[in-house]
Amino acid sequence: xxxxxxxxxxxxxxxxxxxxxxxxxxxxxxxxxxxxxxxxxxxxxxxxxxxxxxxxxxxxxxxxxxxxxxxxxxxxxxxxxxxxxxxxxxxxxxxxxxxxxxxxxxxxxxxxxxxxxxxxxxxxxxxxxxxxxxxxxxxxxxxxxxxxxxxxxxxxxxxxxxxxxxxxxxxxxxxxxxxxxxxxxxxxxxxxxxxxxxxxxxxxxxxxxxxxxxxxxxxxxxxxxxxxxxxxxxxxxxxxxxxxxxxxxxxxxxxxxxxxxxxxxxxxxxxxxxxxxxxxxxxxxxxxxxxxxxxxxxxxxxxxxxxxxxxxxxxxxxxxxxxxxxxxxxxxxxxxxxxxxxxxxxxxxxxxxxxxxxxxxxxxxxxxxxxxxxxxxxxxxxxxxxxxxxxxxxxxxxxxxxxxxxxxxxxxxxxxxxxxxxxxxxxxxxxxxxxxxxxxxxxxxxxxxxxxxxxxxxxxxxxxxxxxxxxxxxxxxxxxxxxxxxxxxxxxxxxxxxxxxxxxxxxxxxxxxxxxxxxxxxxxxxxxxxxxxxxxxxxxxxxxxxxxxxxxxxxxxxxxxxxxxxxxxxxxxxxxxxxxx
Length: 581
Hints:
Residues 238-265 form a coiled coil. The chain is α/β, with parallel strands linked by helices. The protein contains 23 helices and 21 strands.
């Protein structure tokens, strides 16, 4: 094609069929040689083989038909001969020949005559390129997504691509060569012929029930107006693309937030070796391959979301894992966050609307953390979604099918909340098909060392710190400590020590003060010989343990009795005996 002419060089196409003669030759001899040969020119060189002149048949004709009797060959010698080099492009040769108004161009390499570019070389290669360009141009036009129309200066259609045929239902064979206004009386292209001014992205209805976005512009070649070109696109197609783009943008925005929130390389993996946790893992794996709703319970910091993500990842579903902290969403934003909204649904609504969390989790998992904090009115809406598996955006009219697994989590006592009327019983049974109770860290002390090393490595890697040694006394204290904040608290303690450490070993003096104070108090109790009253010590210990069990169970006496490993009647008796409220 024509563009390829930029990469065709004179050395590739030049002719080596040429005649060279010394400057001592006479005009009569030149005339005889040219008449006998097929060539139209002779190149004259000096004794050094330097090109000094060109004589053509046309030159000889003018000489012999002129009144001038001077027929010297020297009159055809030139001081500066126009020539090309083998590395010059064919287009560059063409430009030289047009500029100098010559029909042939010698090709010199290092001053030596090596070939000739004639008019036919330019014509053959460029015409071939034009033909190839036409084929390629038609292919390109037919594979462009927009409908493309080109009309000449009189308004007749000269280009009508495949998408024009599809959009308007008119074949190219029918409309080509016809006036565009015969088919579209209010065609914008026809108006451009008069105004000669382009329009861009204009809404237009060229015929009934046909709504398009059109861009149209006049065509000028060498400052001469020759026609109009336009690109049209169906409005419904653009609307669908915008919706898909909006959905993609929402997904990207969500994933960016998730990446920023969860940068831990081990996130989603459960770090443990205790038997209690291994049992929970096995249960989770079994549940993961189903679409059953799961309720994960446990104290704050035990890793409920880590388990939820592990279930999602192990399930192999194609959709996303969408975590939602129910306690962090303002009441007035619950519906818009969960179900999304259409453009203009309310003041401040984003242009193009927004997809909700349930829609985002379609074919994936939505994790409702702290579900116990969900307001009653939203509990009712959530129950309806679980029953019907459909949602409706705020301001929208159509129902959207949803297929998402529900995993819920809480550290609250939902049974007690049901008794108080704070949580719907029907919703509880919907989300509590399978219950996974994550044990607190203090009940799986064999995991403390494993988690400590995991957190230590990650925190050191994140801060480009060499992993230090850890004094055995530090681990002794951490294993004995009562981890109310569980794994989350342990991670904070590890980070505290890593940041403050200035040596190659972490020692107990780097432990947070509240942990050291507790360890010191326990040591003093063990070394104190001033009070060896066993009855008094047992009484104080029982009161302390009972209060702790009630605190953990949120006042649930049955659960507290299980934690203390005593019958519930025994717990009631001790509550009365010690006057514990």
